[in-house]
C-alpha cells in the first residue's frame, strides 16, 4: 500500500476488503495473529485493544455527564476553534450521511454533530458527547487511534476492533497545542464506506492544521491540569485531578525525567538517565510499570513512555521566569536543589542546569535584593562569589566584608574587599 494511513488502495473493491478484514478480525479475536493483509497500524491497534478490552463487543463508556461536559468543553482550548471545524466540515455534517466529532486528548468526545437520523445511529454505539473513545475504552477507531499514534489516519469498516462500530468508516487527525506540542485532541469525520478515499483524510488533516494555525496566532495555550513540586525535596509531590501523590525516590526521579522529555522516551533512555550504564532492561521496565500503575493511564502512557496530562513543575517554572528576566520572582519560586538526594545521572544534570541558570542570573542582576535572597538561603549562604558581588554594591556593609574574610580563610584564598570611601 502506497500510503499506510489510507484504508484502501486505488481501485480496491470496498466490499471485498470488508470481507477480507472481517475474516481476519474474527480469527484475531479467536486467538490467531493478525494476518499479513492487515495494515500494520491496524494490527498494532488490535493488539493494544485486545489487551485493554474485555471483548470485541465492548461499548465506549460515558465519562462526562451533561453538566460536567458543558463546563469542561466550555473551558477547553478546542472550543476556540469549533467555528473552524464547522466551517470546513459542517457541510459533511449536514448532508445526512456524515458526523463531525471533536474529542479531547483522552479521547472523550466533546462535540458530535450531524443530522438527527445519523446521530440516532451513532447513539446506538455510544458515539455521543461525553463518551470515552480512546483505544483503551473503545478499541481501534479513527479518533482514538489517531491519538495513540499521533498521526492522521482512516479506519475502515471491519478494521474497527469493536463489532458494534464496524458498519462505520472514519477519518481523523490529531490537533496539537502550538506552544507545547502536546495533544489537545482530534477532529473526526464518520460515515459510510465511501469515506475510505484520499480526500477525507486530506480534509481532516487540513482542518487540524487550520485549527493549530489559529491557536498559534491567538496565543491559546493548554491549561495546566496538575503540578509537580520537586525543588528542595527528595520526594516529589504531584497534584492532579483533586488528588495528591507523594512519590518515593525512584518514582520521583522517573517523574522528573518524564517531565523533562514531553515528547516521550524509550525504556532504554530512561534507564540510562536513571541508572547510567549499569542497568538491566527488566529493572527499568518494572519501575516504569509500577509508576504507571500508581499514576494510572490518564497520566502516563507507554510506547514511548510519556505523560499524557499537562503538568507544570516548579523546576520548569524557574527557568521560564529567568527567560522573562524576572530573577527575583525565580528566586522566590526556587525552594532548593532539584531532588537534592538523587544521584540519578539525568536528575543530576537537570539539577546543575537549573542551579547554574539561577546562580548566573543572580550574579548578573546587580540587584541587592536578589543577591541578598540568594545569600540568605541555605544553599547560597557560603557562595563567596555572590558575597563579593554584594559587597561591591554595598561596600560599607560590615557583615559582607566579615563574611568574605571568613569564607576566604576557609577556602584558603587571598581576600580582597573594597573599602568604603571616607
Outline the secondary-structure elements:
Layout lengths: L13 H16 L10 H13 L13 H9 L7 H12 L5 E6 L4 E5 L2 H8 L11 H4 L3 H8 L3 E4 L12 E8 L6 E9 L6 H20 L8 E4 L7 E4 L2 E4 L2 H12 L6 H9 L5 H15 L4 E2 L4 E2 L3 E3 H10 L3 H7 L11 H21 L2 H8 L8 H10 L4 H14 L11
Parallel strand pairs: 6-11
Antiparallel strand pairs: 1-2, 1-5, 3-4, 4-5, 6-7, 7-8, 9-10
Helix pairs in contact: 4-8, 10-11, 12-13, 12-14, 13-14, 13-15, 14-15, 15-16, 16-17
Keywords: DNA-binding
Pfam family, one: GAF
Protein name: Transcriptional regulator
**Architecture of the domain at 14-217, CATH level 2?**
2-Layer Sandwich
Note the total helix count: 17
Class from secondary-structure proportions: alpha+beta
**Number of β-strand runs:** 11
Q: Give the proportion of residues in helices.
A: 40-55%
**Which fold name corresponds to the CATH topology of the domain at 14-217?**
Beta-Lactamase
Please give the alpha-carbon distance between the first and last residues.
87 Å
CATH superfamily of the domain at 14-217: GAF domain
Report the sheet with the most strands, covering strand number, pairing sense and barrel closure: 5 strands, antiparallel
Name the strands of the widest sheet in spatial order: 2-1-5-4-3
CA-atom Rg in angstroms: 27 Å
Mean pLDDT: 87
Query: Which residue ranges are poorly predicted, with pLDDT under 50 across at least 5 consecutive positions?
Result: 416-422
Basic shape: elongated
Strand-residue proportion: 5-15%
CATH class of the domain at 14-217: Alpha Beta
- The succession of helices and strands, N to C, reads HHHHEEHHHEEEHEEEHHHEEEHHHHHH
Pfam families: GAF
Keywords: DNA-binding
Domain OmpR/PhoB-type: 242-307
Protein name: Transcriptional regulator
